[in-house]
Each structure stands twice: as structure tokens, then as C-alpha cells.
Amino acid sequence: VVIIALGNPLYGKYAVNLALSIKQQDPGMNITLLKDDAALAHIEWYMHSFDQVKDVPSEMIKDGAFIRSKVCLDLLSPYDETIFIDADVIMLPEKKVSELFDMFKDIDFTMGCRGLNDLNADPRLVWCNTDDMKNAYQTDKVYNLSSEFINFKKTSRVIETFEFAHAAYDNPEIVHRRF
């Protein structure tokens, strides 16, 4: 499991809570914290909650946009198979993370998806001009993906997907709203 805590001590606290909620049900689960110094400000006593702690290189955070680190999970994760969970999530005791690994054993990549946007039927996206999207990427359909949960294996096809995401994030062909 990989958890990212960047930019604010609250994310470090959230990461500890998530790690402890996972370890409560799955004591043997390996958990890596990807962090910066700001996130560690109040959690130095809880570092034992993580199996590994790694700094996120500054080049994987573009213009202070911490979300770019999610686009770089393929490079940051020390695991061949990764479940990434946002730090501000908590695991409830009904399920173990190991059960999620079992559930996704035959799936190389999955993440939260809130549906498919048909840009012709509903031409409103809050984060960009839909005509720009259609022209730049030659598509009229866009998945509404949500990055609070990502499961992936480091297969060649998944790495290609991440490489496309790196390129699209770093050099978007459209003007977009920054969150």
C-alpha cells in the first residue's frame, strides 16, 4: 500500500490514521509513505506505522501541484503491485486491504471512475473547454476518473498508461482549470 502526504502536517496525520486502520486488520500489510518534510511536522513519533518512508523528489511535484505525485506513482511505488489510497481515507474493519489485492489479482489497473462523459450530449466539463478537449485529443468521450484509490501492477501496458499521463500532465494540449 502506498500513501502520499505532502504539503501540510494534516496529511501526515491522516496518513498515520490510515496506516493504523490498515494495520489493525492486516498487521502484515506493507505500507509505504511518500512524503515531504512539511507533512512530517507532527508525526515523528508515529513513523513506526510505516514499513518504508520515502521522500517525493521535487521534480515529481510540478509548480507546487501535489497531485502530480499521483501521476508519478509508477515511478514512486517500490512495489510491483500497488494499491494507492489517499491519506484522508480510513479503512473500516469490515474489509482487509489484502482482500482488495485478491479481488484485483487478474486486473492490471483500476481506479475510481464516476462514469463516462459524452462531450456531445453534455458539453460541460468544469475543468476545461470541451471543444478544446475534443480537438486536442480527438475524442468525444472522457472518463470521469477519481484518484483517491488506484490499483496497478507494473506491466508494460500500465507503464505506457502512466507515461501518457506524465506527458499529458506536463504538457497539456488544452487550457484547464487548476484545482
Question: How does this model look, in words?
Answer:
- This protein is an alpha/beta fold and 179 residues long.
- The two termini are 25 Å apart.
- The longest helix has 17 residues, at 9-25.
- The strands form two sheets. A three-stranded parallel beta sheet has the order 1-2-3, covered by helices on one side. The chain has a three-stranded antiparallel beta sheet with strand order 4-6-5, with no helix packed on it.
- The mean pLDDT is 90.
- The protein is built from six helices and six strands, in the order E-H-E-E-H-H-E-H-E-H-E-H.
Number of helices: 6
SS-based class:
alpha/beta
How would a crystallographer describe the biggest sheet? 3 strands, parallel
Q: What is the number of beta strands?
A: 6
What is the string of SSEs from the N terminus onward?
EHEEHHEHEHEH
Radius of gyration: 17 Å
Q: Mean pLDDT, rounded to whole units?
A: 90
